């Protein structure tokens, strides 16, 4: 068995991919909650989460980790809360409902191309390991299908709660999601028409060969962004919760683990929407919004960006590591300044000593991490010379396994980085705009966005026909 | 190694989907609440779409989820929720009418079984309903082509007519219940509707 694993690393990677990627993406959830809390405090000009801490006995440090401890306390509280089931609910559906949006959110992640397809030699022929977990030629349709199924969680949960507030929230949510699915599908259709394929890998490769979708379809991008806000039930479209009108909407009757599952699903949908936006309109895993020059390859359907990345792997990895290291060092420098301010202003001597120790730990960790990344940058520039490693077999350039692995890692990070931009946009909008009224949402969806999406589709079709 | 693994996995998946489909279908017959029935029907459709995917028809599978499980059943669930808001009543389970209508699926089932036993020629390797196969055939606009695109456009117009009619019907009742009727005609209509609704109560 072990020999077989060593002999077929790509097959093993293909089997592990559906387990590893959801696990990694799940690690963004607590980060997103932290961004939400700190971002809210930042935008509203207040202190933010700064009380919960873990005491580390050996170092004598009260670790607050910038509010990250709040996530742990949240999880502990919600997990160990009494699993109360109200007596008036429809019990089976009530317990079943919170799982549905989580499942559909995870299934959506399975369709995203996380890295460029890798070609490798298997026996005497060439084989390809796709960056998608489900290699479907109707990829984005399947994504919309799963998105449509996610509504069942809210609808079932609200109905099974058997309470008026929940039912109102659920009906609002389902009506809104059905309405905005129309403009979501129509707005992305312009991009798909230009690409000529429904597969998400093809969409990303088209963007690598031409330019990013946001440049050729700016209106479609805006419509898709707004539809995504509605599909994720985020402010200003969060009438499903509407806490000022209907208590907490569809999850009024849910508590403990069940409530946590609903919240997990909400943030999972934010991540999935961000990744989808980055994939369709920001070039997915592609590094730059233009095809990079590469001698000897003028075939229209060679993924030039990926090939260029593999040829210059050392420099690109070095630049990214250097950027990350500089960021960490800059953050450490900021923390030094913060520590000095506390030292000057704090009257309480005990508090002063505590904060000094805590910030000392942060500064040490971030400075060490930054220096380590800088060292890694130098090492990768010095050691990774990959331009000569590619062999051309049957019009395909084959690289050794470790080059493919590092490229996949870099491309995964590029995609996550682009997605984090949209994650921050979700937070930013939530704490900037007030909630729309329900009739305003319906009017916007049916009377404004649908019409703009139709006109956009028509104009795109005419231009695409003229250009070809 | 992989071929045999894939084959046995396919059998296992088919068994799982078939069991889910049959279980949900039986559940649809025996549950008492309409919404439970609707969710069971969604389960049947999802399992069917899995079986379509196993039969090398991914596009059909996607459409099964997107259109039937996603859109149509969502509408059904929505209507049941709206109608059941006031009174959470349950329908009787198996009555004589349902037993009689059971004859239809039994007959269709016999026909299906006999068709399968006939061993019709089918190539297992064919990609039956992928986007690449379907799209050129459906939108083949040459004169020698099958001309499915004309039917496609006709169905589109039919749906458009249905949507316009639905909007018109909904608009009429909306106009009559408006607080400020802009013409005497609609005002009279509104009064009539009010009278009717009072009479109904």
In total, the number of strands of chain B is: 0
Q: Largest protein interface?
A: A-B, 28 and 28 residues
The sequence of SSEs of chain B as H and E is HHHHHHHH
Our count of helices of chain A gives: 17
**N→C terminal distance of chain B:** 72 Å
Q: Overall pLDDT of chain A, averaged?
A: 84
Average predicted confidence as pLDDT of chain B:
75
Q: What structural category do the secondary elements of chain A indicate?
A: mainly alpha
Could you explain how this protein is built, in words?
The complex is a heterodimer of chains A (468) and B (201). Chain A is built from 17 helices and six strands. Chain A has 468 residues and is mainly alpha-helical. Chain A has a domain at 81-291 and 415-467. The termini of chain A are far apart. By secondary structure, chain B is mostly helical. Chain B folds into two domains: 1-136, NADH-ubiquinone/plastoquinone oxidoreductase chain 6, subunit NuoJ (Four Helix Bundle (Hemerythrin (Met), subunit A), Up-down Bundle); 139-201. Helix content of chain B is 75%, strand content 0%.
């Amino acid at each position: 068995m072990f020999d077989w694993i060593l002999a077929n690393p790509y097959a093993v990677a293909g089997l592990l991919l559906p387990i590893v990627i959801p696990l990694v993406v799940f690690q963004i959830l607590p980060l997103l909650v932290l961004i939400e809390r700190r971002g809210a405090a930042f935008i509203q000009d207040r202190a933010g989460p700064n009380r919960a801490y873990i005491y580390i006995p050996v170092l004598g440090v009260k670790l607050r980790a910038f509010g990250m401890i709040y996530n742990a306390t949240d999880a502990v509280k919600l997990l160990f809360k009494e699993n109360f089931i109200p007596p008036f609910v429809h019990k089976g559906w009530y317990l079943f409902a919170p799982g549905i949006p989580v499942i559909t959110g995870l299934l959506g992640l399975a369709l995203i191309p996380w890295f460029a397809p890798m070609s490798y030699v298997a026996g005497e022929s060439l084989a390809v390991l796709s960056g998608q977990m489900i290699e479907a030629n109707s990829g984005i349709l399947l994504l919309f299908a799963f998105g449509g199924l996610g509504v069942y969680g809210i609808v079932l949960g609200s109905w099974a709660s058997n309470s008026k507030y929940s039912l109102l929230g659920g009906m609002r949510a389902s009506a809104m999601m059905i309405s905005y699915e129309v403009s979501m599908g129509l707005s992305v259709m312009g991009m798909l028409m230009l690409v000529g394929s429904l597969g998400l890998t093809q969409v990303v490769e088209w963007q690598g060969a031409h330019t990013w979708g946001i440049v050729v379809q700016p209106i479609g991008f805006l419509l898709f962004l707004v539809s995504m806000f509605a599909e994720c039930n985020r402010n200003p479209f969060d009438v499903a919760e509407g806490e000022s009108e209907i208590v907490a909407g569809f999850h009024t009757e849910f508590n403990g683990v069940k409530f946590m599952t609903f919240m997990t699903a909400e943030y999972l949908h934010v991540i999935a929407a961000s990744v989808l936006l980055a994939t369709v309109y920001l070039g997915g895993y592609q590094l730059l919004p233009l095809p990079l020059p590469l001698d000897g390859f003028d075939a229209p359907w060679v993924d030039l960006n990926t090939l260029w990345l593999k040829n210059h792997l050392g420099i690109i990895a070095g630049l990214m590591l250097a950027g990350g290291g500089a960021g960490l060092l800059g953050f450490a420098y900021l923390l030094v300044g913060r520590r000095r301010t506390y030292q000057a202003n704090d009257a309480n001597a005990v508090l002063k000593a505590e904060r000094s120790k805590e910030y000392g730990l942060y500064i040490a960790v971030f400075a060490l991490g930054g220096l380590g990344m800088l060292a890694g940058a130098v090492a990768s520039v010095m050691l990774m010379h990959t331009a000569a490693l590619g062999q051309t077999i049957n019009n395909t350039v084959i690289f050794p396994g470790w080059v493919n692995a590092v490229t996949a890692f870099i491309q995964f990070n590029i995609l996550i980085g682009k997605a984090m931009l949209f994650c921050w946009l979700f937070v930013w909008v939530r704490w900037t705009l007030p909630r729309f009224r329900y009739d305003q949402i319906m009017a916007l969806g049916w009377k404004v966005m649908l019409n703009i999406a139709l006109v956009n589709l028509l104009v795109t079709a005419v231009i695409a026909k003229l250009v070809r | 190694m992989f071929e045999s693994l894939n084959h046995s996995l396919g059998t296992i998946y088919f068994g799982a989907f078939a069991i889910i489909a049959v279980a949900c279908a039986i559940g649809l017959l025996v549950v008492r609440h309409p919404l439970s029935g609707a969710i069971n029907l969604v389960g049947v459709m999802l399992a069917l779409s899995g079986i379509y995917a196993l039969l090398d028809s991914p596009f059909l599978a996607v459409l099964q989820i997107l259109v039937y499980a996603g859109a149509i059943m969502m509408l059904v669930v929505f209507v049941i929720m709206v109608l059941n808001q006031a009174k959470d009543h349950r329908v009787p389970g198996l009555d004589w009418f349902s037993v009689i209508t059971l004859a239809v699926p039994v007959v269709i089932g016999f026909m299906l079984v006999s068709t399968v036993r006939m061993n019709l020629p089918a190539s297992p390797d064919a990609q039956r309903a992928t986007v690449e196969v379907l799209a050129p055939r459906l939108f083949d606009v040459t004169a020698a082509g099958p001309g499915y695109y004309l039917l496609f456009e006709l169905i589109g117009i039919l749906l458009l007519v249905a949507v316009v009619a639905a909007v018109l019907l909904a608009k009429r009742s909306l106009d009559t219940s408006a607080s400020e009727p802009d013409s005497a005609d609609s005002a009279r209509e509104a009064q009539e509707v009010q009278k009717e609704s009072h009479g109904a109560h």
